[in-house]
Amino acid sequence: MITLHHLEHSRSQRIIWLLEELELEYQTQHYARDPDTHLAPDALLAIHPLGKAPVLTDGDTVVAESGAIIEYLTERHGGTHGLRPAPGTPEALRWTYWLHFAEGSMMPPLLVQFIFRRVRKADMPFFARPIAERIADSVEAAFVRPNLLRQLAFMESELAQREWFAGDQFSAADIQLSFPLEAAAARDWLTAEEHPRLRDWLARIQARPAYLRARERGGPYEL
Q1: Distance separating alpha carbons of residues 76 and 110, to the nearest angstrom
Q2: What gap in Å lies between CA 66 and CA 104, rounded to an integer?
Q3: Which of 15, 106, 159, 192 could be stapled to 197 by a disulfide with Cβ–Cβ 3.0 to 4.6 Å?
Q4: Which residue has the higher pLDDT, 137 or 203?
Q5: How many Cβ atoms are within 10 Å of 44's Cβ, its own excluded?
Q6: Quick one: average pLDDT of 118-138?
């Protein structure tokens, strides 16, 4: 039996979605975040030394990291679902690129923004708050905003050339990109004027039956 160790409000939600798209039998082990630190509980350390989610177990096999889990599941259980393009095709190269882009390029500025938003809300002496806010503002202006705007413009231009990110067919690359793009939308980065195709893409993925089943099964998912 496949078991997904799933953390609420996290990127492991997209692995539930992938499992639903693949129509696999699986079970989920749910974990709640620490209300103070927002981190995963220590119980996940029993599953993987880093104590992070998602982690997938399939018999004696343990796989961590979203991209590695997606590659494992689509290679081992993909079958005829079409979620991974044929090797050696232009679609396969784009599939691999977007699989890595989601975590390697898009998540870092989103994570930095999340950290500095928590800094702004943290308890601190009144005289320190203006300094903390000034540092947060400067980091967002110098790093977060230019990187995210450039990435979103690039992704918007890619969808002008094809319906889905890897090609004309929905694939697991779209599943991998769902978390950073949903996070960007939740933080008001996607505008109707500049990102109509990305907003349409989000509407299309969120209407998929497997996505809706995954949301019901995954529990809390606020970004």
Answers
A1: 31
A2: 12
A3: 159
A4: 203
A5: 21
A6: 72
Question: Residue 19: CB partners within 8 Å, gap ≥ 6?
Answer: 2, 4, 26, 73, 214
DSSP assignment of 32-87 equals PPPTTT-PPPGGGGGTSTT--S-EEEETTEEEESHHHHHHHHHHHH-TTS--SPPT
pLDDT of 104 = 95
Spatial distance between the Cα atoms of 60 and 113, rounded to a whole number of angstroms: 37
What are the tens digits of pLDDT across the range 52-90?
A: 999 999 999 999 999 999 999 999 987 778 899 999 999
One-letter identity of residue 21: E
Q: Determine the pLDDT at residue 134.
A: 81
Model confidence pLDDT, tens digit, residues 143-195:
888 999 999 999 999 999 999 999 999 999 999 999 999 999 999 999 999 99
Q: Provide the token pair at 43.
A: 């119980």
Rounded Cα–Cα distance for residues 138 and 136 (Å): 6
Question: What six digits make up the tokens of 123?
Answer: 């308890």
Look up residue 141 and give its two tokens: 């202006």
Q: Please state whether 162 falls in left (phi above 0), alpha (psi between -120 and 50) or beta.
A: beta
Give the percent of the chain with pLDDT over 90.
Answer: 77
Residues 6+ apart with CB under 8 A from 188: none
Q: State residue 127 phi and psi, 5-degree precision.
A: -75, -15
Question: H-helix or E-strand containing 27?
Answer: strand 26-31
